[in-house]
Amino acid sequence: DIVLTQSPDSLAVSLGERATINCKSSHSALYISNKKNYLSWYQQKPGQPPKLLIYWASTRESGVPDRFSGSGSGTDFTLTISSLQAEDVAIYYCQQYYSTPPTYTFGQGTKLEIK
Amino acid sequence: QVQLQESGPGLVRPSETLSLTCTVSGGSISPHYWSWIRQPPGKGLEWIGYIYYSGSTNYNPSLRSRVTISLDTPQNQFSLELTSVTAADTAVYYCAREGLRGAYTYGSYDYWGLGTLVTVSS
User: Fold this and answer.
1) Residue B59: CB partners within 8 Å, gap ≥ 6?
2) Taking CB atoms and an 8 Å cutoff, what residues of chain A touch B50?
3) How far is B5 from A43, CA to CA, in rounded Å?
4) Burial tier of B59 (Cβ tally within 10 Å: 0-12, 13-18, 19+)
5) Does the N terminus or the C terminus of chain B have fewer Cβ atoms within 10 A?
6) Yes or no, beta carbons of A55 and B106 under 8 Å apart
7) What pLDDT score does A48 carry?
8) Residue/partner pairs of B97-102 with CB below 8 Å, 24 or more apart
9) Which residues of chain A does B107 touch, with a Cβ-Cβ cutoff of 8 Å?
10) What percentage of chain A exceeds 90 in pLDDT?
């Protein structure tokens, strides 16, 4: 089974400061055939479904502000919010697709708050 | 704009079958993968399984013995059945579409329904 471990579990950052969330996988997310890392990031606010922010480790979904960025390859990934805004308070999840067999695994979530 | 909406009973008795339907509007079932994902109250997300527009399916190994996902393409709907439910199956159930860009899937979900809370209780 694939295990995704996010760190930290919770994070408090001042408005305008940088927030960084890490995600470590037990299995590589890199597909040699197309050189894509199948690791995504979501933002979930209370009472709402998750919202896709980043896919293929670093590709920003359409409409997502450019203060959100993703990086990493293989088993270690990072979501960075360059300048925290009040509306960014949420729980953030990483998620990996693995093809053999096809499975979709989520991290445990990181709660982001304002300091 | 693609929209997904879950529908079905909000209360299911223990040992019975949970049945939900997701209706897709504003877009076609083809050529996407369509998944069910659940979230117990206050907890994280768990993938249940997917159905491809062709009708092929794949399920989370931890639920495989109890899950069936089916497709009704003319109605632009897909459905979930989960048998022999217990209190541990109490969760918000989401349907979601896997994103597609060119020839490659995202491996993640670009459109989600709002979710429906299903409580298992007698």
Assistant:
1) B48, B49, B67, B69
2) 102, 104
3) 20
4) buried
5) N
6) yes
7) 98
8) B97/B2, B97/B4, B97/B24, B97/B27, B97/B32, B97/B33, B97/B34, B97/B35, B98/B32, B98/B33, B98/B34, B98/B35, B98/B50, B99/A52, B99/A55, B99/A61, B100/B31, B100/B32
9) 38, 40, 55-56, 96-97, 104
10) 93
Q: How far is A83 from chain B (nearest CA, A)?
A: 24
- Determine what percent of chain B is predicted with pLDDT higher than 70: 100
* List of chain B residues whose C-beta atoms are within 8 Å of the C-beta of residue A96: 107
Q: What is the dihedral of CA A51, A54, A59, A65, to 10 degrees?
A: 70
Q: Alpha-carbon distance B53 to B33, whole Å?
A: 6
C-alpha to C-alpha distance for A32 and A52, rounded to whole angstroms: 24
Tell me how far apart the alpha carbons of residues B99 and B2 are, in angstroms, rounded to a whole number: 12
For residue A100, name the pLDDT band (cuts at 50, 70, 90): confident
Write the CB contacts of A1 (distance below 8 Å, at least 6 apart in sequence): A26, A105, B61
Neighbours of A76 (CB within 10 A): 14
Task: Kindly indicate the confidence band of residue A101, based on its pLDDT and cuts at 50, 70 and 90.
Answer: confident
pLDDT surpassing 90 at residue B105: no
Asked whether residue B77 carries a pLDDT value surpassing 90, the answer given is yes
Over residues B48-71, the pLDDT tens digits come to 999 999 999 999 999 999 999 999
